[in-house]
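Reviewers of the previous submission asked for a worked example of the structure-prediction workflow described in the proposal, so we include one complete record here. The input consisted solely of the amino acid sequence. No template or homolog information was supplied to the procedure at any stage.
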Amino acid sequence: MARATSTSGAVADKPVAVEPLIRVQDLAVSFDNGSGPRIQAVDGVRMSIYPGQTLAVVGESGCGKSVTAMSSLQLVPRPPGRFDRGSVWFRSRLAGELGSSNGEVDLLRLDEPRMRQVRGNEIAMIFQEPMTSLNPVYTVGDQILEAILLHQNVDVDQATEIALKAMRDVGIPEPERRIKQYPHQFSGGMRQRVMIAMALACRPKLLLADEPTTALDVTVQAQILELLRELQVSRGMAMMLITHALGVVAENADVVCVMYAGRVVEYATVLELFDRPLHPYTRGLLASIPKLGERKDRLVTIREVVENPAEFEKLPGAGEGVRPWWPWHQPPKDLAAKDEPAGDYYLQEVSPNHWVGVWRTAAVRDHQSRPPDLAYILPRQATGAA
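From that input alone, the workflow returned the following structure tokens.
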């Protein structure tokens, strides 16, 4: 097992005996498509996040990243959405009230009143576009106060002090004046800071950050990501970071989950994934990035990698019939997918602490592995270093 850290941030030489804060197990979400077949946005997703850890979820638009995060808070509109199967186990304060013996509750099974106790309180979310997420007819102070008054037993004066502190914590100058202003009076970077202040005002245990730097210039992106790192370290907060940018992943993540077409194609620590990518899609993503000091007439495309048969043989277990799953490949002849909810796909631990989405061949059926579970935090995050 890779080195881990305690939730206090101290680097440990051995894995820390803590339980995951949240576990997503075989999550499948689909959407109504009118008269056509349902669209399977997420199909068999598995992942876990530990206290103080950052899990980066990477993939192109439409791969299911945001649907996975929004499902955890029951924010997927139903209909047209539907939870087909799976569970999202979270270590919640509601566990005792619900009689849970292990401290976990399945977020997908909570009724709306209990879900509101979790949303914005124990789990908060930063959405992609702050201008559409903030209500233009209310001041930013009103919107931050709403969450505080809903979840904390305080009066308006106390809530205002908490809101002002949250704004100071995220670097908004003159919070006493700006708390009375409207979203259109803030720049894009400052609106994103308002969203972060709103999300963190109740000190959640888990932050879902969905493309938190979209539409921001590079300098402001770096400031927002540095701010999130500092707040995470100071509060021992876990984070799911959804992004397209592999540079952001390399700088901020502890564990990486790569998704394509609603499924996880690779799952490993950030160091392992960048050093030894195993799925052809991940290698294609990395190969398509230009590198300083390396001159090329043209960049390698993802398609060139995933359609190269030689890439299949680089996967551990290829000699025994293990093949990387890809929706546009011809399925192997020895599929063993009968009566399986996820059909021909399986997330397999092909080497220690490294999972790859593979075809459910006979070789995989006979050697199925544990779900992805990595209690790993990079020392640089534990020390608060940038």
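DSSP finds 16 helices and twelve strands in the chain. We consider this example representative of the routine output the project will generate in years two and three.
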